[in-house]
Amino acid sequence: MARRSRIDRFGLALLIGAPILLVGCPPPERASAYRIEGREQLIGGPGALGDVNDYMLENGRIRVIVQDIGYSRGFGVFGGGIIDADLVRPRKTGTSAGSGGNDLFGEMFPAFFLEALDPKTIEIVDDGSQGGAATIRVKGRGNEFLAMTEMMMTAVLGPENLLFETDYSLAPGKNYVEITSRVINNDPRGRSHQFHNIEFSGISVPIPMGDAILFSYKTPTFVPGDGGYDQRLFMEERYKLPIQLPAIPGLVSEYVAASGDGVSYAFLPAPAGDANFIHKHIDIYGSYAGTPTDHSLVIPFSASSLTPAFFANPPDLLGPDEVFTFSRYLIVGSGDVATVANTVHEILGDETGTFSGRVRELPSLTPVAGASVIVFDGNRQPINQLTTDAAGYFRGAMRPGTYSATVVLEKRQTPVPRPFAVEVGGR
């Protein structure tokens, strides 16, 4: 039964469990991959960096651009990474400025600790014309993307006998790109490759792999369960806590999201057992932050819009022609955290219930559009964020459990969170 929480001093009524009309979805369109030949094929938008000769992945739901070989147009040094991502929007007449999208993404590229993939070739492995996933493959060697790291990374990764490959795949009807990286030992002498750890105070610390993600200033970053939007404050608190090596300090979460005006994003590592760095050291992280999983990531620092997310735990030794593989997802939503969190639950196969409701002004009961509903878990950590639509409604999938929620609106006092519960299949 719906339950209303009146927040008189805030001037809002939060109605939890309000009914929402659901509309059927059209059948998914075929996914495709192609090289961009004209500017009218670009995504466009405030953060758009794509250009002619880059590579496009698109289906009926999202469009994503992988930059061609060359110097990065974003934060990084090299091409070959994702630089634009947006929902599919009604096409305007093509112009030299692009096709009127709303890209707010910055850049994302694989990070082998402090090395990035320096692409030598980019190819379309599958253009999607047969009805399956469309895939773009980037191949190259590792190269430092932060200044003064060459000596360190040569010591850690060893000589240049490793080949790096990354596949970007988009399936029909999905609002996420599956990203799979492979580290291949192709030593010409047939020797095994040892990943050299960094030594701190006599303790050998393994070097995790992951991605460098640059969300734009228009899309504030949200870390579920470990600070929400308040990353800087919580990062400082995390570094005050003792942590046992070889684990590394930082924010720990299942995924990291970014919300914006009309588009949102999430980065989610694929479940990997002990090949996940946090899960490998769960005995340490379990008492450090939240509830570590086999798909958790650690953010050891943040600088401006840069969010490095490390999660992959390479083996100590990689034999001749052996391959270390790790996967993750870039999800595109419609503006709030909830729309990408819904897809996180879909990918992970979670059992969920629905948290929905409506926000209205008091005493007029006028619907409030654009209000931010923040959800907290049992540890009082921000776990989700939902934005109300033009009629004041909000809706999102959540795992079963007991939560609390509040409403955040500019120039209004934020009320004390009110409790609610979610059951599997419940509304």
In short:
The chain is mainly β and 427 residues long. Helices cover 9% and strands 40% of the residues.
Write the layout of secondary structure elements.
Blueprint (H helix, E strand, L loop, with lengths): L2 E5 L4 E5 L15 E4 L19 E4 L3 E5 L15 E6 L17 E8 L2 E12 L7 E11 L5 H8 L4 E9 L5 E10 L7 E2 L3 E3 L2 E3 L3 E7 L5 E2 L8 H10 L10 E3 L2 E4 L4 E6 L7 H4 L1 H4 L11 E3 L6 E7 L4 E2 L4 E11 L3 H12 L4 E9 L10 E5 L5 E6 L5 E6 L2 E8 L9 E5 L5
Antiparallel strand pairs: 1-2, 2-24, 3-4, 4-5, 5-6, 7-8, 7-15, 8-9, 9-10, 10-11, 11-23, 12-22, 13-14, 15-21, 16-18, 17-20, 18-19, 19-23, 24-27, 25-26, 25-28, 28-29
Walk me through the structure.
It is a single chain. The chain is mainly beta. It contains five helices and 29 strands. The strands form seven sheets. An eleven-stranded antiparallel beta sheet has the order 16-18-19-23-11-10-9-8-7-15-21. A four-stranded antiparallel beta sheet has the order 1-2-24-27. Strands 3-4-5-6 form a four-stranded antiparallel beta sheet, with no helix packed on it. It is globular and about 75 Å long.
What does the oligomeric state look like here?
single chain
User: Which regions are unreliable across 5 or more consecutive residues at pLDDT < 50?
Assistant: 1-10, 146-159
Biggest β-sheet description: 11 strands, antiparallel
What is the percentage of strand-forming residues?
Answer: 35-45%
**Mean pLDDT score, rounded?**
85
Tally of separate helices: 5
Which bin fits the share of residues in helices? under 10%
Order of strands in the sheet with most strands: 16-18-19-23-11-10-9-8-7-15-21
Distance between the termini: 9 Å
Work out the number of β strands. Answer: 29
Calculate Rg over CA atoms.
Answer: 22 Å
**Would you tell me the structural class of the helices and strands?**
mainly beta
Overall, the morphology is: globular
